[in-house]
Design goal:
The structure is a homodimer. By secondary structure, chain A is an alpha+beta fold. The first copy, chain A, has helices spanning about 10-20, 35-40, 45-55, 85-90, 110-115, 165-170, 185-195; strands spanning about 30, 60-65, 65-70, 75-80, 95-105, 125-135, 135-145, 175-185, 200-210, 215-225, 230. In chain A, strands 5-6-7-10-9-8 form a 6-stranded antiparallel beta sheet. A 3-stranded antiparallel beta sheet of chain A has the order 1-3-2. The longest helix of chain A is centred in the N-terminal third of the chain and has 13 residues, at about 10-20. Strand 11 (about 230) of chain A pairs antiparallel with strand 8 (about 175-185) of chain B, so a sheet runs across the interface.
Chain lengths: ~230, ~230
DNA sequence: TATTCCTATATGTATAGACATAATTAATCT
DNA sequence: AGATTAATTATGTCTATACATATAGGAATA
């Protein structure tokens, strides 16, 4: 061969090209694995791997017996890294600082219980803290931790380590829900973030579960200078 | 075995469980493919597939010769669907309406060119429109389309179909950058979205390229009631 | 006509074997 | 010792083959 042997990458990229350049229009039934294997001079397994990757990426739809076709409405997805505040700040070349504001065991208010699908007024740990980048407030964190699922949190020391950092090491999660929104800073939030009351803020809310049991709800507030960027 | 034959799923899930339940702590060097193959009574290729999936998910780190270890700082990623405004609104059970505000060919201002990495003041198409859900303003779209890469846009009719919908069918993209942030509504935005000037808004910015050539920049403004939700 | 059953077929998965490749470790040379 | 080279080893990939499984579409039936 002139170049390299046909690998699943070569095949994947070539098929991807044909779709991107509309050689195969959306909805088209493309040749079967057997045929493609012959065309590329590869084994069916190799073609299969290429096709599976493209199907996973959402640009192909495969069905047994029916064959493989170019997705009509490719549900394009983008990824974003689940931010870990310390890394996020240090990755920008800034110095990370952390300040614990309050920790207390309390019955979570109705709103919080509802968000966590908890019927009873569960006993929880309420942690409030502030994350700074180069001594400038970066994120205010208001977190509720379910003491029924993570009883160890009661004795954890949050003066040096943020609750997220602690939880990463003590309570793995299997599921999570992320919500992003805009809001207006409350008086409390404003003074902590050194902005004015009513100023727009970028809010991230994160709920995590382990096998259906809610672990924690984090309410994360950023000043409006914050950007959440991701690439496809 | 008690149940079914060991499949790559079985193996993947079992390994995943061992990591989640801390049988194998972060940093641990786990047994090699050969050993796992023997343990599960499967072929090495099958174990390999399981391990590769876990590595792709970021919970394992693999290196030739060195072996496979549990990721120390698992870079967890979440996905979000790249929203297609019509589908997004109809999926909520709302009726979708669209209103074109303005279309004009113009030289993009410096800021826009800079965002698209265009040095010259390229000739572009500036489209402004409004998307409504059940007759309530849902998103204000302010878009610039590069006429050098998508000359067809000049003759496109945006009175019935939004520029995004049109572009999906005419200009596939290979790369995209998404930025999310909070901001305060300008007087213009406020009147269009039926909110007050200065009210917080949720802003999404989307830039797409085809093979390095910038195609379009979309500035999408939502009232602060908007939620962007995603699951892991 | 509508329903049920059957079968052909494309994809899904497993396997043994082979070779490729990267990276660590050991051996060799200066 | 320090640098270069070679051997070793775990993962990466490909192949040929086999069987599993879902299902479209036709055949048989009610």
């Amino acid at each position: 061969m002139t170049g390299r042997r046909a690998s699943f990458r070569t095949i994947r990229d070539e098929l991807s090209r044909r779709i991107a350049e509309r050689v195969w229009l959306p909805g088209t039934l493309i040749p079967g694995e057997e045929a493609l294997a012959e065309e590329f001079g590869a084994a069916r397994a190799t073609v299969n791997r290429a096709l599976q990757e493209l199907a996973r990426a959402g640009i192909l739809e495969r069905k047994r017996r029916a064959g493989t076709r170019v997705a009509l409405h490719p549900v394009r997805e983008a990824r974003f890294v689940i931010p870990r505040i310390r890394q996020e700040i240090e990755a920008r070349g800034s110095e990370y600082q952390y300040r614990l504001l309050s920790v207390e065991e309390a019955n979570a208010p109705e709103v919080i219980c509802a968000r966590l699908s908890l019927l009873t007024k569960s006993n929880m740990l309420h942690v409030r803290c502030l994350h700074l980048a180069d001594r400038v407030p970066y994120q205010f964190e208001d977190r509720w931790i379910n003491l029924n699922t993570v009883p160890d949190a009661r004795t954890a020391d949050f003066t040096l380590m943020g609750p997220n950092e602690w939880l990463v090491g003590h309570a793995p999660f299997s599921n999570a829900e992320f919500t992003f929104m805009a809001g207006a800073a409350s008086a409390d939030e404003a003074s902590l973030l050194q902005i004015r009351e009513g100023d727009p803020v970028f809010i991230g809310e994160r709920i995590t579960w382990m096998k259906g049991e809610p672990i924690t709800l984090a309410h994360l507030v950023h000043p409006s200078s914050h950007r959440m960027v991701t690439h496809l």
